[in-house]
Structure prediction request, 228 residues.
Amino acid sequence: LAKTTQPISMDSYEGQEVNITCSHNNIATNDYITWYQQFPSQGPRFIIQGYKTKVTNEVASLFIPADRKSSTLSLPRVSLSDTAVYYCLVGDPYNQGGKLIFGQGTELSVKP
Amino acid sequence: NAGVMQNPRHLVRRRGQEARLRCSPMKGHSHVYWYRQLPEEGLKFMVYLQKENIIDESGMPKERFSAEFPKEGPSILRIQQVVRGDSAAYFCASSPEGTGKNSPLHFGNGTRLTVT
Prediction:
């Protein structure tokens, strides 16, 4: 399974756009990129998943360049409630059998 | 539609006692996964179960830990003779038919085990 590298922490202010980049140089052809969000004392929550180019939902956007060796999670106009740890995961969702590999994640702190 | 339910939320055990953690998957989900999160670390996969079957237990310690998902009732993660190093948050997740594109895992809010 591809290893991911992302910043340990980031700071932002309310109303700003936040971009969290994840490196995955060894991504395989069948791998998808998935982001989860985890609040303190809660389980992770699925945010978004993509394979290439751009994916957008009501919560975030995911930008994936052509070489797929990195990806960027974009959170528009963050609020205090977006303070959480964000995990980037890479793998083949059809063959992982639920064995997701969570790294250290990026601890996002949103300030007023 | 209730999410993944785990209980208890907090569990305190003395060294040597047994800990039983329960997980009820989302309605309609027949696949259950257990993860462990040690303090200041990411989540680590432990075991993947379907009804009455263990599919993958490669992340589970060989001794003292066991898991089951019976035909009726919740999935149980059992830790015998707990030690201080077992103190962690244990998360359960479920999915309808195994993982796949657009089929993310749904996690519960965990059981925080403290061994004194």
Summary: Residues 33 and 90 of chain A are 5 Å apart (CA to CA).
